Amino acid sequence: MPPRPYVLLSCAVSLDGCLDDAAPERLILSGPADLDRVDAERAGCDAVLVGAGTVRRDDPRLVVRSAARQQARVRAGEPPSPVKVTLTRGGDLDPAARFFTAGTAARLVYCATPGLARTRDRLATVATVLDAGPSGDLGGVLADLAGRGVRRLMVEGGSEVLAGFLGAGLADELQLAVAPLFVGDPRAPRFLGGAGRARARLVEVRPVGDVALLRYALSDRAS
Predict the structure, then answer these.
(1) Closest by alpha carbon to 14, among 160, 162, 158, 181?
(2) Which CATH superfamily is domain 6-217 in?
C-alpha cells in the first residue's frame, strides 16, 4: 500500500477560469459528454472527496450514475459507488444533504479537532466522523484513507480544497475541463491553483463534446 492514495483533481472551468458564477443556482460548465467522462473516472476510484462548502452549496450526490458502471464495480467485489469523503472545520452540514442520503457508499467526514465533538453530535448517525487534526491536515487525511484501503482518490472541489491539495504538493494528476464560455463576474469562484512556480507536465489534450480536456501530470506517479 502506498503511503497515500493516488490523488486525481478534477474540475471544470470557464474560459476565464471560473468554477461557477455568482448566481444562487449552480452553473453547469460541463456538457453531457464530459459529465459521462467524469462518471467513468469516478467509477474507477475508491473514494471521492469534496469540501463542506461544496456539500452545502451544490448538494452533490457523488455517486456513479451509470448502471453499467455500478454493475461492473459490484462484479469486481466493490460497492456500486466509491466512498464519499468531505472536509469540514465546524461540521455545519445538513444530515439530510444528498452527500449523506444518496447511495449506499460509506461516508467519511474529516473534521478539524475544535469542531469534532459538535460534528459528531450532528452527523454520527449518517457518517463516520474523524479527527483531521487541529487545522485539518490533508496529509493526515490521506494517510488515514490509505489505511482504509483507498488507493485512488478523486477530488472534485471546491476551489479551496483543490488549492489546498495543489499547494501542499499532495496531488498526482489534474484533469481540467475548459468550457467554451466566459463568466465575466469578479464575484465568481475561481480555480486558484497552488503555490510555487513548478510547471505541470501536459500529458493529454482532447475534445470531449464541446469542452477541451487538459490532463496534467503533477507527480512522478502520474502517467
Answers:
(1) 181
(2) Dihydrofolate Reductase, subunit A (3.40.430.10)
